[in-house]
Design goal:
This protein is mainly alpha-helical. Helix content is 72%, strand content 0%.
């Protein structure tokens, strides 16, 4: 618990989670314990912390290289280990459901894109997820472009019903409508 309090203090004084991890790991020489302390300080639930750290333990924390704490912290942050989960509202869950339908209709997705989307779903950054999906192109051979664009239109319409929606959402929604028109017009 003491290490988590130190992590909380580091975060409160302007350190990023990656920097807090690096500071703790340098002091303790215990990378797993340091990563767990940062997650605890961020109020990430213990079960979720365990899952996240189990996923990257062998690659990043089991046998750390000397003086690699800062790099490891940045990798942990990039992998989403320190992402604070947001409890989504029913409205937001409906949007995520539409995103998942659209991803199925995409016909294949790069691992990095999938990782980014998962992080945005976890943190509730649905605007970024929508903009990313709206910029993608469904594969004509394996995907369903008509379903993809129609589903993104539904998601965009839900997102733009919120108070003061981001103008980029409206622009992306217009592009999705244009794509659907081109897809369905011979």
């Amino acid at each position: 618990m003491r290490l988590a309090l130190t992590a909380r203090h580091l975060l409160d004084t302007g350190h990023t989670p990656a920097q807090a991890y690096a500071t703790l790991a340098r002091r303790t020489r215990e990378p797993l314990r340091s990563a767990r302390a940062v997650c605890t300080a961020l109020a990430i639930p213990a079960a979720e912390t365990d899952r996240r750290l189990d996923d990257c333990y062998n690659a990043l924390l089991a046998n750390p290289r000397p003086n690699s704490e800062a790099d490891t912290g940045e990798l942990l942050e990039a992998l989403g280990v320190f992402d604070i989960p947001k409890t989504l509202t029913p409205h937001e869950l409906a949007v995520v459901g539409l995103f998942l339908t659209a991803i199925d209709a995409l016909g294949g997705i790069r691992a990095g894109h999938q990782h980014g989307l998962t992080r945005w779903f976890t943190t509730g950054n649905l605007t970024a997820a929508y903009l990313s999906l709206a910029a993608a192109t469904p594969r004509s051979a394996t995907g369903n472009p008509t379903r993809y664009w129609a589903t993104l239109i539904q998601a965009g319409e839900l997102l733009t019903t919120t108070l003061n929606p981001d103008i980029r959402l409206r622009n992306a929604l217009t592009r999705c409508r244009d794509h659907l028109t081109r897809t369905t017009t011979p």
